[in-house]
Design goal:
Layout: E1 6-10, H1 35-44, E2 47-54, H2 56-59, H3 65-81, E3 88-92, H4 115-124, E4 132-135, H5 138-147, E5 151-155, E6 170-172, H6 175-188
Parallel strand pairs: 1-2, 1-4, 2-3, 4-5, 5-6
Length: 190
């Protein structure tokens, strides 16, 4: 039987790229400083790189699923060129209030629900207790908590951070600080 893997679960907007609001074109993507260095380190430490992202813009009719997939294919190509290949992408197009047609519904995949993380853990044989999630909002942290992810990191990108329960996460103000945290937990706990 294969041994379980550890994963770095990455939110997209606000962690990988600047959150410009419903980005679906290459020209809307501005990569956050340090993202490739952070992901290369994670890869070198044996982490699977998995993107988990709410994409209610699909459900709201702002762009199509095809638009999203084309953009993600391009982003995955960039990551591969940067020597930090993305192993998989999970996304939730649903919104319980603003979705249109089949996209107007509740889903455990929509963060703060843990559905995307649980599906990834099952599909890729991930040990969530030795995994990390990094996001820029409480919904990311709550999804990690719900899925049992041990290390939960909120990236404030130098801005104000929302008030969160103490002990639920670690806060960093840049991806460079997240690199230090990843090194620390791997030296100390893993």
């Amino acid at each position: 039987m294969d041994s379980k893997k550890k994963a770095l679960f990455l939110d997209r907007d606000g962690v990988i790229n600047v959150d410009t609001g419903y980005a679906f074109k290459q020209e809307q993507i501005i990569f956050i400083d340090g993202i490739f260095e952070f992901c290369r380190l994670a890869k070198s430490l044996g982490y699977y790189l998995i993107i988990i992202t709410n994409q209610s813009g699909i459900g709201r009719g702002l762009y199509s699923k095809s638009d999203f997939l084309v953009l993600m294919s391009w982003m995955e190509k960039i990551f591969k060129e940067e020597n930090c290949e993305i192993h998989d992408v999970y996304f939730c197009p649903y919104h319980p209030h603003e979705g249109k047609g089949k996209y107007k519904r509740k889903s455990s995949w929509r963060k703060p629900g843990p559905g995307m993380i649980k599906a990834a853990a099952k599909q890729h044989n991930i040990d969530v207790m030795n995994s990390v999630i990094i996001g820029d909002s409480y919904t990311d942290i709550e999804a990690g908590l719900g899925a049992g992810v041990r290390w939960r990191v909120i990236l404030s990108n130098g801005g104000a951070s929302p008030l969160l329960d103490k002990g639920s996460h670690v806060q960093v103000d840049s991806l460079h600080a997240a690199i230090d945290f990843l090194l620390l937990i791997n030296e100390t706990y893993l």
